[in-house]
């Protein structure tokens, strides 16, 4: 089997055995739900409901705030309690529409499409836009925008990202194993938009069962193939994936479309399938609840807006105290100080670890071993960049291509001196981006 990959990267303990064999279970929250108006890149959604309104599951409660934005849909039936600021997983606050869940799960009537092949490209994009589909791999970029590149005829690859290279996460794995037909159908819809493209379902070779299942499923699909990838972090990062499969490179000022590619995560492709074929908006996602502190690590099919605390309870709670709780994976996720935050369209996991190895380890002086340089998938010099960040030397940081950092964390992971390289570089990147905005 030919394996596709990139240069650099690391092989952290993957912890996937904790939850990988646990099938997806639907979770029905009991308490109120909070729908953040910013769950995507772009303008916040604008609420179209008011306190006291009764809403149904599948009903739009906030409309898109512009073209680069996405509407929000209620995922349960109930009554709007109000619109108020709520904590987000990254520790910020954001306005949220609060719905008191009546536990009835009354749902609007959807209009499925029996003949998706008869839809025009405009009709497909409109359905995806109206359903509020955004990139569910983390970025939350509105999918209808991604599927509207300037020169669609130049797109020759649709890459479905099934790498799931972040340790501990198994939601994409379960989705590919349990509902592979939805992945294939969603990809076929996307291929309708790009006449010159072929579809590649890209899967790391630590998921041989998914590779086998999907390969068999696309055997008679001339425009689709499965691409097995070498298991290595961050294989699923957009730039690494594009390079591994096509040999093409993009930098931070380019879009995948500049390399003839559209990259969509597994759950996003399924959301496209639901939007176009079933007529259903995006209002659920699969979340992995895992870590050595969790009683029963699980994968849940969760209504957007559910409180993280309910996720943890559904997994049996904590079996031992958690020193570190993360939204997402251990490499790129966000440490949480309060888990009363709502699940959004981009939530992938709740990870509870009994030991926080990072905060326990002592930082010492750099020994110039060069491990961070070898591990960096962007071929940067993390030591220098971190030093420029510490000294706030923006010009030098830019001259050494600091903005090309994809914040993967590989440099911090391999550093024997436990230097917080990625964190320092990330802070400087934030400053540069803020300064650019001001200008
Ligand atoms: S410098 Fe950035 S891209 Fe390179 S390893 Fe560190 S975090 Fe990853
Ligand atoms: S890995 Fe750590 S110790 Fe080694 S060169 Fe990089 S910063 Fe220095």
Would you mind describing this structure in some detail?
With 439 residues, the protein is of the alpha/beta class. Among the domains are: 116-278, NADH-ubiquinone oxidoreductase 51kDa subunit (Rossmann fold); 371-438, no CATH class. Helix content is 27%, strand content 19%. The chain has 14 helices and 17 strands. It has helices spanning 121-130, 143-146, 171-178, 180-191, 208-217, 238-246, 266-278, 308-314, 357-360, 371-375, 382-390, 394-399, 410-414, 421-438; strands at residues 24-26, 33-36, 46-47, 54-55, 60-63, 72-73, 78-87, 93-101, 157-162, 198-204, 224-229, 261-265, 284-290, 298-303, 324-327, 334-335, 349-353. A six-stranded mixed sheet has the order 1-14-13-17-15-16. The structure holds iron/sulfur cluster (SF4) (2 copies).
Average pLDDT works out at: 95
Strand segment tally? 17
Q: What is the CATH class designation of the domain at 116-278?
A: Alpha Beta
State the low-pLDDT regions, or none: none
Ions, cofactors, ligands: which are bound?
A: iron/sulfur cluster
N- to C-terminal distance: 50 Å
CATH topology category name of the domain at 116-278: Rossmann fold
SSE blueprint:
Blueprint: E1 24-26, E2 33-36, E3 46-47, E4 54-55, E5 60-63, E6 72-73, E7 78-87, E8 93-101, H1 121-130, H2 143-146, E9 157-162, H3 171-178, H4 180-191, E10 198-204, H5 208-217, E11 224-229, H6 238-246, E12 261-265, H7 266-278, E13 284-290, E14 298-303, H8 308-314, E15 324-327, E16 334-335, E17 349-353, H9 357-360, H10 371-375, H11 382-390, H12 394-399, H13 410-414, H14 421-438
Parallel strand pairs: 1-14, 9-10, 9-12, 10-11, 13-17
Antiparallel strand pairs: 2-8, 3-5, 4-7, 5-6, 7-8, 13-14, 15-16, 15-17
Helix pairs in contact: 1-7, 4-7, 11-14
Bound molecules: iron/sulfur cluster (2 copies).
């Amino acid at each position: 089997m030919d394996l596709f990959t990139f240069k650099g990267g690391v092989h952290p303990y993957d912890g996937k055995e904790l939850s990988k064999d646990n099938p997806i279970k639907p979770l029905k929250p009991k308490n109120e739900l909070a729908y953040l108006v910013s769950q995507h890149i772009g303008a916040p959604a604008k609420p179209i409901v008011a306190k006291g309104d009764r809403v149904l599951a599948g009903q739009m409660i906030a409309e898109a705030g512009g073209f680069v934005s996405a509407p929000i849909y209620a995922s349960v039936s109930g009554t709007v309690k109000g619109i108020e600021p709520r904590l987000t997983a990254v520790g910020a606050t954001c306005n949220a529409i609060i719905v008191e869940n009546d536990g009835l799960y009354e749902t609007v009537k959807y209009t499925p499409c029996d003949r998706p092949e008869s839809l025009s490209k405009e009709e497909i994009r409109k359905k995806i836009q109206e359903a509020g589909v955004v990139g569910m791999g983390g970025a939350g970029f509105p999918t209808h925008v991604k599927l509207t590149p300037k020169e669609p005829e130049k797109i020759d690859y649709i890459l479905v990202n099934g790498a799931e290279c972040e340790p501990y996460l198994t939601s994409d794995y379960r989705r590919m194993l349990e509902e592979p037909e939805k992945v294939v159908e969603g990809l076929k819809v996307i291929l309708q938009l790009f006449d010159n493209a072929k579809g590649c379902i890209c899967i790391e070779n630590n998921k041989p069962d998914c590779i086998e299942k999907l390969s068999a499923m696309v055997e008679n699909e001339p425009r689709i193939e499965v691409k097995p990838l070498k298991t290595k972090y961050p294989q699923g990062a957009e730039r690494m994936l594009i390079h591994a499969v096509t040999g093409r490179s993009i930098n931070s000022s380019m879009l995948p479309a500049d390399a003839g590619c559209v990259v969509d995560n597994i759950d996003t492709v399924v959301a496209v399938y639901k939007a176009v074929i079933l007529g259903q908006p995006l209002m659920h996602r699969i979340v992995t609840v895992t870590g050595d502190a969790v009683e029963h690590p699980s994968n849940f099919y969760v209504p957007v807006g559910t409180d993280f605390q309910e996720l943890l309870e559904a997994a049996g709670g904590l079996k031992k105290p958690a020193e570190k709780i993360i939204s997402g994976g251990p490499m790129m996720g966000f440490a949480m100080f309060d888990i009363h935050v709502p699940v959004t369209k981009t939530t992938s996991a709740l990870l509870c670890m009994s030991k926080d190895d990072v905060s326990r380890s002592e930082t010492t002086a750099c020994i110039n071993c060069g491990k961070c340089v070898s591990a960096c998938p962007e071929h940067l010099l993390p030591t220098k960049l971190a030093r420029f960040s510490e000294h706030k030397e923006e010009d030098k940081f830019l001259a050494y291509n600091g903005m090309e950092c994809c914040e993967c964390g590989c440099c911090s992971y391999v550093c024997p001196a436990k230097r917080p390289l990625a964190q320092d570089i990330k802070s400087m990147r934030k400053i540069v981006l803020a300064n650019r905005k001001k200008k």
